[in-house]
Amino acid sequence: MRLKDKVAIVVGAGQSPGEGMGNGRATALTFAREGAKVLCIDRDLQSARETVDMIGKNQGTAMAFKADVTKEAEIKAMVSEAHARWGRIDILHNNVGVSLSGGDAELADITEAAFDRCVAINLKSCIFACRHVLPIMRAQKSGAIINISSMAVITTYPYVAYKATKAAMVSFTEQLAYQNAQYGIRANVILPGLMNTPMAVDTRAREFKKTRAEIEAQRDAQVPLRQKMGTGWDVANAALFLASDEANFITGVTLPVDGGASVRRG
Ligand SMILES: NC(=O)c1ccc[n+]([C@@H]2O[C@H](COP(=O)([O-])OP(=O)(O)OC[C@H]3O[C@@H](n4cnc5c(N)ncnc54)[C@H](O)[C@@H]3O)[C@@H](O)[C@H]2O)c1
After folding, report:
1. Which terminus, N or C, of the chain has the lesser number of Cβ atoms within 10 Å?
2. What residue ranges define each of the domains in the chain, with the CATH number in brackets?
3. Where are the alpha helices (DSSP H) in 110-223?
4. How far apart are CA 64 and CA 42, in angstroms?
5. CA angle centred on 65, ends 60 and 71, rounded to 5°
6. How many angstroms is it from 149 CA to the middle of ligand 1?
């Protein structure tokens, strides 16, 4: 029970269609298993409800809440809901993010609409969610914020909006950590590497007209550690540590969860 009596908001706690477990759902399940009360946010309410049902089967406490986090008013509503329901907010986990599925493309092909969409989903959502939980966390003099960026920040990556927004999340998290340290608030950012999630694998299978197994094999081969992608549980376990009091003195850190990809050179 490493998060006993804590209140968490997991943004993007449902998951994209496909096989297996997404990072957001695995994190919501892990936080609840460790004793947190979890508000499961998604623009797809049905998907958030599925996460809550899975938590309920393990006797955790969770609620589904529909919000499109590209809209500030909906972010405000989500924060108010968690606070009104449970009286505090200890953890904010910002998991939403899109690349190909948001229409991202190489620079020569990117459209204005796709770029704006990716910026709103990947970056604006994170910044405004932080903006609205901060007054509560500052008043509490405690809080842990975890932002999900990507290894695309430091490895080569073909699509422009994802790379730029995920890199911005790292700088933003450092600023957030420094400026809120005096209030006892910690902020850290995770860089998942190649993970076997529905969004990463099934979206690419559809887009490139390949089978799931072909995409899996291609991605597995690129991972130094055991030549096997990570899973949503790997991201969830890293987030659990950063959210828990075990990470009490850790803030402003960028943590790769990538099977060694960040130390490959050449
Ligand atoms: N899978 C990987 O290989 C990999 C690698 C690096 C980083 N990541 C990052 O992990 C995060 C997502 O992982 P996941 O597997 O949980 O993805 P996912 O797409 O399965 O889950 C994200 C959820 O966010 C929701 N969502 C999207 N836009 C939203 C919005 N505007 N408002 C509210 N909800 C919204 C979706 O409906 C979905 O249920 C992303 O930030 C992604 O960039 C993944």
Report:
1. C
2. 7-193+232-256 (3.40.50.720)
3. 112-119, 125-140, 160-180, 203-208, 212-220
4. 8
5. 145
6. 10
Q: At what angle do helices 112-119 and 160-180 cross, to 10 degrees?
A: 30
pLDDT tens per residue across span 89-140: 999 999 999 999 899 999 999 999 999 999 999 999 999 999 999 999 999 9
Active site residues: 162
pLDDT (tens digit per residue) in 148-176: 999 999 999 999 999 999 999 999 999 99
Stated as kind and residue range, the H or E segment containing 51 is helix 45-57
Q: Which two tokens stand for residue 169?
A: 């999340």
For the segment 229-238, the average pLDDT, to the nearest whole number, is: 98
Q: Say how many C-beta atoms besides its own lie within 10 A of residue 226's C-beta.
A: 10
* Tokens representing residue 74 in the block: 């909906």
Q: What's the number of CA atoms in the CB half-sphere (13 Å) around residue 205?
A: 17
Which residues are within 8 A (CB) of 199 and not within 5 positions of it... i.e. 6 or more apart? 15, 16, 18, 22, 98, 101
Ligand 1: residues whose CB is within 6 Å? 12, 14-16, 22-24, 42-44, 47, 67-70, 95-97, 121, 125, 148, 150, 192, 194-195, 197-200, 232
